[in-house]
TrEMBL record:
Transmembrane segments: none annotated. GO terms for molecular function: DNA binding. Residues 5-67 form the Ribbon-helix-helix domain. The keyword DNA-binding applies. The lineage of its organism: Bacteria, Pseudomonadati, Pseudomonadota, Alphaproteobacteria, Hyphomicrobiales. It comes from the Bacteria. Keywords: DNA-binding. This is DNA-binding ribbon-helix-helix protein.
Length: 78
């Protein structure tokens, strides 16, 4: 079993793919649910904000990490 799974998504009318480890994917799904938005919409949002030289998979991992840090900071009162 691979630690990284490849998934496909349609963003702004074109099909693309990203590869994430299950914990990152699970957190991404949880973030989209918390925001009340489809996963594809969240992926498109991250895609729109990433630097063009960064790949989508890396941008998604960094986004999940950033959200985890924000959550930890909020819980600790910082």
């Amino acid at each position: 079993m691979s630690l990284v799974e490849k998934r496909s998504v349609t963003i702004r009318g074109h099909r693309t793919s990203y590869s994430l480890e299950k914990p990152f994917y699970d957190d991404l799904v949880a973030i989209s649910a918390t925001r009340g938005m489809p996963l594809a919409a969240l992926v498109a949002e991250v895609d729109a904000q990433r630097p063009r030289e960064a790949n989508l998979s890396s941008a998604l991992r960094l986004f999940v990490l950033e959200q985890a840090k924000l959550g930890a900071a909020q819980r600790s009162g910082h």
